[in-house]
Design a protein that fits this description.
Elements (H helix, E strand, L loop, with lengths): L21 E3 L7 H11 L3 E3 L6 H8 L2 H6 E4 L7 E4 L5 H15 L26
Parallel strand pairs: 1-2
Antiparallel strand pairs: 2-4, 3-4
């Protein structure tokens, strides 16, 4: 991410350009609570979803009705899924780029084929027995 601040600008005064508001929910893996707070307060325009190894975090995100109301979530896009904020001021540009990307990487399909409309999850964590 790039910011519009100078090195002497305090972090709290940093402003972000709309195109740079990208959240990589990847490495290091943030706690899901911190991630959800960040997403709700900073409203990133684009989120690259967590690796599929983070099943709990993905379950929380994919089944959150508030998250799905604010973002179009394309499951599996760019390996792990991407989410685009519905009210992003740069959404038209992102959709144009998404269409170009999609036609090259997933020929014969459209982003709407991967759009998550709703998801449910019990929230239970599972463990492997010690047998």
């Amino acid at each position: 991410m790039t910011s519009n601040s100078s090195p002497s600008t305090p972090a709290s005064a940093t402003t972000w350009s709309p195109c740079s508001t990208l959240l990589l929910a990847e490495s290091p893996a943030p706690s899901i609570q911190k991630f959800m707070v960040f997403a709700a307060t900073r409203k990133p325009d684009l989120i690259w979803m967590p690796n599929t190894a983070y099943t709990y975090q993905r379950g929380v995100l994919f089944s959150d009705p508030t998250f799905l109301a604010q973002y179009d979530l394309y499951a599996g896009a760019a390996d792990y899924g991407i989410a685009i904020r519905k009210d992003s001021p740069v959404r038209p540009q992102m959709e144009r780029q998404l269409s170009i990307f999609w036609s090259q990487v997933y020929p014969g399909t459209t982003p709407s084929d991967y759009l998550v409309h709703s998801a449910t999850w019990t929230g239970q964590k599972h463990t492997v027995p010690d047998n």
